[in-house]
């Protein structure tokens, strides 16, 4: 067990704006998304920011306005005390949860007392892939590693498991319905902090990507997203590893994959001492964290093994977990996660997920912490497990417990 | 006043222009030791030349420059990469770089083919002027030989044309006519007469006395179309590896390395990129794939086409009138190939409808050529006029060669032989196009068996480049020479083999399908079997190909062989025959064109495994290492090829390699089913010894059929290779 307990004092996020030019948050700079949350934390908790050791922010496209250690810029723009440090990290789609886990380790080690963990991604302003990377863009490295875009991995999972287009669409529909229901009933209200302009006018105060009127019919009409890409040769690369299947059934569409959105998240994590010194009441604690990697070609099957790893570390089984959150990068990822852990959809993504609300790459992992903590409190349950699939075949998982 | 510097004739004219006319010792100019000696001297001589106003590179040969010296490259041993790198850098690239920094214009006067290294020399000049002649071609064929253009070809192409434009020429080895090269930007100017070439070069020098800087040496130069920071280039580089894999299945290092160097070229400066390119070539030169491809697809193919397997002392012949019996798929294809080559063809079938239908095939193929702009209506009429369709044997009167392509039935074939022989011209040849029946046996029906021979065509005849000539016991050398000359006359590559059941290609091909059937019967997933065959480099899987061949044919051949008492006398293909018989008799599945076989076929051309096949054979419990499955598919064919060599069915190693590449679909990386033994790497060994170890491993695990023939053991012992 860790020498010190890492407490979660609060967890907040921005609403998720559609990640395109016509999205509400397109006019808001990435730094401003992050700084708004730091200001809100300070105000909500009447926080002495000088007490904060570090701000850890995930961001997957750390170039342009998101480049140059955006976490430090966020701290300054939020006008926090100049003693507060900031660091940006990138573990692809798990960056937000990696920030939470790293913050927890900082506290658990006893070497720091109070850390903000979170993430930020304005996908409308800094598009996905803007940071490049030799893995895909350098032919020598690409050839040596056999890079295949992840959507084809998602389709391959569905093909291997025999999940049809209807199966993945049905999962997507339930995500939309659950998210819409949760939003309508105010389940997200505690965490979602409106984004405002310089006049204090609200730009966006709720997730705008959810499509409450989705139907199987509408979903069924969408064209597969990765079929054309697969035909360029990526399907062949995938089939080299999975020669048992004759071809890849391209079932994923924009309707059953995570949405492209803008957003940020911040989680305040600290020690018992920090809580006492500042008079903060913990809402929960980080029980354990885990990260690992699996086959990088299919890329998206890491969450199940990561969940098993974190459970083993915590000395628990799935029976000890009340609710699960798996990032809905693609419908097949969530289906596979539930199958790997033998858990029911009834306790998984109970308020929908990224298919309905979107996946602001660097922030999502930290957003899931606020979502699940709210839901544990609303249902008066004890423990949750959060997991995400990660580029390069990695998987990440965190167990959170109310205190 | 001229001076010959290691085959480079150096002459300065009154205007101060030096013309260097390359006239090297061999039949062509090549990047060999003599070239390196010349180029060690020439740049320095030019730099110190007084009153120099320009330089023209020209050739005294009919071609401009043939490229690298493959014999030399082929012998670079593993471990020789460092030496090779230094030779490329210091003896090839440095002189070219010095040449392009010379402060006078340098022009390449391209009179004929400038390929590979020859074209790289052209790219290091300031201007390329080409004679727009019919035989002039430029390009980089290196990739087709397992190599890369290492004398600046990749880097200069990209800096001249941009990555997007240059990539296809570097990756596909396509040869360009001068007009195409000009359109793309590789060549600057064309002249219509060879006499105008050097004057045009000199005129340009006089008109452009200061045009001596290469674009990439001018400050502010940017790669056309962008470097690695351009989104279009980034996207191209991200997708190109997958597109390459689709073609090579990851089995050929050359295209991959070319792509890597392309990525580096758009990422670093010109000189650094040149250095990386040298590393790439030094690496590829010692790969087994390059050695295999150069050995078989270049040297052995050339030696076959130039007649090593043809009796040397017989004068070259040609066929003026060809008779074809049977206007079915093979007959009509042979008729087209022959008529196109200018031969008068008499196409005979039992009904005039059938004969005319056979002729109509040629019309159809010619129409397609017209549609593609490769032929005119007139050409079509000329070719068609050469084919006469008939039912009358008498029309065969005076044929130099009659090819019999009737059904694979001994009685029928014998009857036809007796019926038509009389119409042959004096010393005319009667050939049978069979893939399964022994030639010696068929020749018994002939009055003059010495004039009887087997010519095995491959389907579709107009696309397949190979012909397998089979000598019966009594076939004369003269007959062989005539058959060989005919094959060359219609533009095919002839291998010559001795008579034996299935000859060479069909015999080995049979083991391919048999091993597929064995894997199936052992319980493996049929999808996996075909996928792994493709992963090892076969063009299609054994089950898919069996469907094309048809289970019906496999059954018939087995039946015939049984009647002849020779079933499985050479290797055991009983598994495949038994599965074929079962699929036909119990389920009516006789092959793709008999309503389906292992696969079922949809109207849209798609196919999927016939579901009952899983119930019949699939056992999910069976686990077999994928490497073993791949090697079983490959090694069955390699072992059978070695047996063919040992038994004398194959007369030369070259015939075995070229025949397996062109007729069986041997993976390009192997260099053919015999060459693969020379470079095979396994268990820390290289060559026949390595192959032997793997054979014995497979034999222990999967059966005696993988046991190495004595000829391989002998090579393993002696350390010799298959030459």
Q: In a nutshell, what does this entry contain?
A:
The complex is a heterodimer of chains A (403) and B (723). Chain A has 403 residues and is an alpha+beta fold.
Key traits:
heterodimer; A: 403 residues; alpha+beta; ten-stranded mixed beta sheet; two-stranded antiparallel sheet; 14 helices; 12 strands; 37% helix; 19% strand; B: 723 residues; alpha/beta; eight-stranded mixed beta sheet; seven-stranded mixed beta sheet; 29 helices; 24 strands; 14% strand; globular
Secondary structure topology:
The complex is a heterodimer of chains A (403) and B (723).
Chain A (H helix, E strand, L loop, with lengths): L5 E8 L3 E2 L11 H16 L8 E5 L11 H8 L7 E5 L5 H14 L5 E9 L11 H4 L1 H7 L4 H12 L3 H20 L10 E2 L5 E3 L11 H5 L6 H15 L19 E10 L1 H7 L5 E10 L9 H12 L8 E4 L4 H11 L12 H4 L6 H16 L3 E8 L3 E9 L1
Parallel strand pairs in A: 3-4, 3-5, 10-11
Antiparallel strand pairs in A: 1-8, 1-9, 2-8, 5-8, 6-7, 9-12, 11-12
Chain B lengths: L1 E4 L2 E5 L4 E6 L7 E2 L1 H15 L6 E6 L7 E2 L1 H5 L6 H20 L5 E5 L3 E2 L1 H7 L3 E5 L6 E2 L13 H9 L1 H10 L2 E2 L1 H7 L4 E3 L5 H11 L23 H18 L4 H13 L4 H16 L2 H18 L15 E5 L3 H12 L3 E5 L3 H20 L5 H9 L1 E4 L8 E6 L5 H11 L3 E9 L6 H5 L8 E6 L8 E6 L5 H13 L3 E6 L6 H17 L4 H11 L5 H8 L1 H14 L9 H14 L11 E3 L5 E3 L2 H6 L8 H21 L6 H12 L10 H5 L1 E2 L2 E2 L1 H15 L7 H9 L5
Parallel strand pairs in B: 3-5, 4-6, 5-7, 7-9, 8-10, 9-12, 13-14, 13-16, 14-15, 16-17, 17-18, 19-20
Antiparallel strand pairs in B: 1-2, 2-3, 10-11, 18-19, 21-22, 23-24
Helix pairs in contact in B: 1-3, 3-11, 5-6, 5-10, 5-11, 6-10, 9-10, 10-11, 12-26, 13-14, 14-15, 19-21, 19-23, 19-25, 19-26, 20-25, 21-22, 22-23, 28-29
